[in-house]
Amino acid sequence: MAEADPPIFTGVERVPEREASDSAALSSMLDEAASPFVVRGLVADWPLVEAGRKSPRAARRYLLDRARSVPFTVTIGEPGRGGRLFYNDDFGMNFRTARGKLADIFRGFDDNEARTDAPAIYLSSIDMRLFFDGLAEENVSPVADRRPLESIWIGTDTCVAAHNDFPRNLACCVVGRRRFTIFPPEQFANLYIGPIENTPAGRAVSLVDFHAPDFDAFPRFAEALKHAQVAELEPGDAIYLPSMWWHHVEGLDPFNVLVNYWWRDTPAFLGQPQDALNHAILALRDLPQSERAFWRKLFDYYVFENPPEVTDHIPQEARGILAPLTAETAGRIKTYLLRTLSK
C-alpha cells in the first residue's frame, strides 16, 4: 500500500468540498467554478462502486463480465519504484507497455496481489464505450449533458507525477482511495516541468518526487507548496479540475479504479494550444531577442488582446481567419499548416 501521509502534506490546505443534490445542481456548479472542488458520494450508487466495496476481485469480475474481446494496453512498472510511473535515470521510462486481453491482465493483478515486490500495473485512459459493453450505461455519467470523453483508469497503488490537461475534468474515485495534490495553473515555474515531447503519458510532468522532494535541486517547489491543495477521495467521491490545473495523482490501495470525464467548452474544430506552443518553439524561440520582442507584440495584438482595431478597417467579407473562426475557416488554417510544415 502507498505511504499514508508524506511529510510535505503537513499543513497543506484541503480542496474545498461542495454538495450537489442532482445533475442540474452539479452542472450549475461546474458552470460557475473557477477552482477545484470535491463532491463526496457523487457516484456512490454506481454498481461498480458497489462491486469494489465487496472486494477488488469482485470489481475485476464486474469489469471482466463487460469487457469486449479486444486487446487492452497495459503499463508495467519496475518493482521497487513505489508505484511511481516516471523517468529512469537516463530519461527513458521506468515502465514498459504491453497488450493483451483484460482477463490475462487481471490475472497479473491476482498473481501479484500479496507480493511486496510486485510491479506497478496500470491501464490508463481506457475508453469505456469502445472497450466495454454496458459499463458506461450502468454507471451513469454525472456530466452526460456535456458529452464528455468517458475514460476508466485501473491500477495497483500507482503514483502519477503532477501534470495538467487542456480539457476540464471530473474525476470519480470508484474502487480504492485516491489522493490528488493540485496546484493553480500559474505555478508551472515552481513545479520544475520536464521535457515537452518526451513524457510518460503525453503531457509534460513535474520532475519533483512528492514523496521525497529534493529542495536543494528544486528550491522553488517550496513556493509551489504554499499554493497546493490536497484531496483524499473514498470510493464514490469525485473531484472537479478546471482546465490546466496541475494534479499529482496517487492510488492509495493495492487495487484502484477511477473514471474521469473530459470536455472542453470551445468548439471541437479549434486547434490544440499545445500544438501552437510546439510550433512557437520551432519558429520563434531561437530568434534574436529584438525579433522575439516584435513577434510578442504581434501575438498580443492578434491573439491575446485581439482588439477591434485588428479588423475594423477590413470589410467583413474580407476578414478571413481574422473573423471569429468557423469549422470552415479552422479547416483552412489546418490545411495551410499541414502544407507549410511538410516542406
Automatic annotation (TrEMBL):
Name listed for the protein in its UniProt record: Cupin-like domain-containing protein
Gene3D superfamilies: Cupin (2.60.120.650)
UniProt-listed PANTHER family: HYPOXIA-INDUCIBLE FACTOR 1 ALPHA INHIBITOR-RELATED (PTHR12461), HYPOXIA-INDUCIBLE FACTOR 1-ALPHA INHIBITOR (PTHR12461:SF105)
Superkingdom of the organism of origin: Bacteria
Name of a matching Pfam family: Cupin_8
Residue ranges occupied by any JmjC domain in the UniProt entry: 112-278
InterPro entries to which the protein is assigned, alphabetical: Cupin_8, JmjC_dom
